[in-house]
Amino acid sequence: MSLARASIARIAGYVPGEQPRDRSYIKLNTNENPYPPSPRVAAALHAFDPARLRLYSEPLSLELRQTATAPFGLTADWAICGNGSDDLLTIAVRTFVDQGGKLAYPEPSYSLYPVLADLQGAGRVPVDLDADFELPDDAACRAGDATLLILCRPNAPTGNAFRLETMHRVCREFRGVVWIDEAYVDFADDHCVDFVRQYPNVVVSRTVSKSYSLAGLRLGVAFAQPHLIAEMMKAKDSYNVDLLTQVLGKAALEDRDYMLGNVRRLRATRDRLCAELRGLGFEIPPSQTNFVLAKPPVPADGLFRELRQRGFLVRYFDLDRVRDYIRITIGTDADMAAFLRTVADILREPGR
Ligand SMILES: Cc1ncc(COP(=O)(O)O)c(C=O)c1O
For the segment 159-199, what is each residue's pLDDT rounded down to a tens digit? Predict the structure, then answer.
């Protein structure tokens, strides 16, 4: 018998993508960036005096919040920082969803959202995406009496960005908080940060894990009107962003141009990869992210296993609507050329 709360004991918990150590893989499974972070991060790390670690980090991450909000013309009281954007999502659920309350999210989407509902002892309200993985116009209505609706835009694992008109409509109509998870937005054509000025019930979160090449650092930022930020500040751990992350994260955020250079390269690689895969018979919804969801002309789970054996890790989700697809993170041009050669070899083998 478990000693844990019933809502914990009965769930499996979130399962992140593999970080295997058994051999070296070309890792295309967790949407990390193949390029290193800005050289300014390396310089800040070199200059960092470890003696500073005697003291706790600044609990409000004030300098980081100033740096993160400046490009959008906002001030620090419009932002909160977290230990990755996953931490911010946990803070969101603690702040806006009661135990016994309800959390809404699209399906398919980031598989952490339903787990957060379970952890809180709240009900799950999945809102089905349409056949093209678009958000339905009446999503606010379908989210019913949930108090938090999390919309991932661009969406994971499908890669598409929901229509802006639909996003506006949902933010207007939904009575609770709409959380827009923009983990992949730097790879997209547009974004929703401006929504936070317009709507008092909207939060937009971002991360340095993908576009800024800093998944190992753990830093996320969420933007919202100060009244929402003030409530979330009460629900965070006191020192939820460590001192080293505050220093290195600031150095990275100050070098937006370097990040945008890597984004341009990855978008070009993505577009070439899509064209090549389509030529091999794959179906791919349009991607606005650093990954593509691709439906192979052979069973996806078999291809996933075959690729793994040959040293390529991609992601396979045994979940409704996406079990016929593999999700491929965009790597370097060399990674993708090797990947394409291997896929072509596998597809040419007799019996496929
Ligand atoms: C949609 C989405 N949101 C949030 C995250 C978490 O990012 P972070 O590394 O900032 O916790 C991920 C990570 O894969 C993600 O796919």
Answer: 999 999 999 999 999 999 999 999 999 999 999 999 999 99
pLDDT digits (tens, 9 = 90+) for 188-242: 999 999 999 999 999 999 999 999 999 999 999 999 999 999 999 999 999 999 9
Q: Is any ligand 1 atom within 6 A of the Cβ of residue 84?
A: yes
Specify whether the CB–CB gap between 53 and 232 falls below 8 A.
no
Helix axes 333-348, 300-309, angle to 10 degrees: 120
Q: Which of 64, 86, 90 has the most ligand 1 atoms within 8 A of CB, as the residue to mutate?
A: 86
Tell me, using a 6 A CB cutoff, whether residue 81 lines ligand 1: no
Total domains present in the chain: 2
Domain with 220 in it: 53-254
277 and 245: one domain?
no
CATH number at residue 338: 3.90.1150.10
pLDDT at 22: 79
Structure token digits, residue 296: 């192979």
pTM score over 0.85: yes
* Residue 41 domain flag: no
Last residue of a domain, one of 254, 288, 303: 254
Res 352 pLDDT > 80: no
Contacts of 272 (CB under 8 A, 6+ apart): 333, 336
Atom 15 of ligand 1 has which residue's CA nearest to it?
183
Q: How far is the CA of 33 from the centre of ligand 1 (A)?
A: 13
Which of 239, 254, 269 is the last residue before a domain boundary?
254
Domain of 110: which CATH number? 3.40.640.10
Report if residue 190 sits inside a domain. Answer: yes
Atom of ligand 1 nearest to the CA of 209: 9
Q: Specify the DSSP element, H or E, that contains 102.
A: strand 102-107
Omega of the bond leading into 20 within 30 degrees of 0 (cis): no
Structure tokens at 152: 């991932």
